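Hey everyone, long-time lurker, first post.

I ran two proteins through the pipeline my lab uses and got sequence/structure pairs for each. Pasting them in order. The first:
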Amino acid sequence: MRLRETYNKRKQLIDIIAEEDISDFKEFLALLPNEEQKFFLRNDIIQLFKGFCIASEKTEEFMENSSIALFLRRVQELFVRDDHIALMFRFAI
C-alpha cells in the first residue's frame, strides 16, 4: 500500500511549472548546453537562472517567486551531456 501512496503523490513537470512560465523555462534550459560547465549544483543553477532573468529583463518577483524559481530551488544537481539535460529534483524535503 505504501508504494501505491508514493506513486499517487508523484507529479509531472507540467504540474510543477506554471503554464505561463513554460516558455521561459524552455528558454532557460536551451541556454544550458552552451555553458562551458556541464555539471551544476543547486547554487550554480540558481545563479544561472538569476543571470537568465537579468538578461531577459524579468522582474525581481519572477526571479524569486516564479514557479521556475521555486522548482529550481529543489533541484540538487543538473547534468548536461550533448543535447540532453538530467536533473535531480527533490520532491519533498
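...and the second, right after it:
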Amino acid sequence: MDLSYVDSNRIDLLKQDNHNAFNQSLIKLYYMQNDEKEYLNISFSNNEALCFLRFYTNVGTLFLEFNDQKMTDTINSELISDGTNLIRKIWYNSELTWNNGGNENLYLTIVK
C-alpha cells in the first residue's frame, strides 16, 4: 500500500523540504500482538512529484505513529480471505477510504 499525505492546501507533508513536513525518521508502522507492538518495514519514495510511504502487510489493523508518538492514526482493512492478500476495503481513522474490491497495488492520499 502506498500512502501520501497533504495538508488542506495540497502541500506534500512527506517532502522533507516543506516546513510542515512530518519527520520521516519518526514515522512508525505497527500492529499489536499479545499486547506488544510489532513494527513493520516502511519505505519512502522521495523522487516523485508527491512523496509517499510504502508498506506491505496482511494484518487487518495497523497503527501509524507520526512525530514521535504525538499523533497516531489507525488503518483498518478488510482482506479477501483466499490467500492472495488483496485488500477489499480500507478505513483510515474509521472513515471508509477504499471500497473498490481486491487490489494489491493501492495508492491513497490522506489530507491532514
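Reply from user beta_strand_b:
Welcome! Quick read of the second one: The longest strand covers residues 71-79. The mean pLDDT is 86.
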